[in-house]
Amino acid sequence: MVDLQGQYSKIANEIDEAVLSTIRSTSYINGPSVNSFKKSLEKFLSVEHVIPCANGTDALQIALMALELEPGDEVIVPAFTYVATAEVISLLGLIPVMAEVDEKTFNITATSILPLITAKTKAIVPVHLYGQSVNMEPILDLAVEHNLYVIEDNAQAIGATYRFSNGIEKKTGTMGDIGTTSFFPSKNLGCYGDGGALMTRDSSLADKIQMIANHGQKMKYHHEVTGVNSRLDTIQAAVLDVKLNYLDEYISSRNEMARFYDTAFKDIQEVEVPTRASYSDHVFHQYTIKVNNGQRDNLKAYLGDLGIPSMVYYPIPLYKQNAFNKYVTSKFNLQITENLCQVVLSLPIHTEVDYDEMSFISDSIKRFFEHKI
After folding, report:
1. How many CA atoms does the CB half-sphere of 39 hold within 13 Å?
2. Residue-level pLDDT at 329
3. CATH of domain 247-371
């Protein structure tokens, strides 16, 4: 799905020097590269505060802890997303309330959120799925109206830009109270292990987040709150500081592949290519088609037989996961989410554009539908 080897080979000298320099310095924990990357990412995102941490799931948990929500408080999340979004909510004794998503963008909407707001609702977690921003402006307006926090799950869309109706543009992850992201190796900005970060424009929140991520302490051995131990490894920060310089290039390459696929599939009636919303660009963490003839699983198997990887993100709605049974009734059903789980299929898309590979993939898909294999 992602050519990490090809990506590494193009910047091997820079990566090797950055890693070896860290090893030689013996500054393995909170070394200079962590602060350097923090400053670089703040500049890239045009946000006042970036707080690196150990992974994207930790980032979500720390964000919720920083907002001091109480057990039993409700947090609205999309039903169509990775488990981590709701997992941390449940872990903290909060209640994940699962909302329908838009059938075109796959993202949560203000329209789906509004009916779910109760006196117990304290926060919304929009997930910028597959690399495209949620339509944030109406959600931010809703949050102001109902005095709700907004935590952006930006694990799949770092580098994407959102356009407000007044022409102002902001990067995803910088519009809510707190943004979170993951640097898992397959992400658009991925390290060579685990890593994550939180973003905020609020200085007091930034201080609290930093404290929570460091065992709840501002001063060594003085623990003000119960915190966690969540650090971005210095070697991973060194890798990310190099790769951040190439993120725009990586996004451009992914878009080039997406346009190739769009053209290749435009005459296949059964395939619906990804929507590009007018308010957001798309960084294509995933290129996700909809296979609308009930043949998604057969197509996936066919591609697998040809050695072509593909993935279903996500095959089961959150509310049907055993981990969340206690939050929903057996009759709970969101029709769009249910349908998406049956039709979405993500194809290989990465930073190393190879037209022979893309042609092989697209031609194989065309043959599948021509012959109804």
Report:
1. 5
2. 81
3. 3.90.1150.10
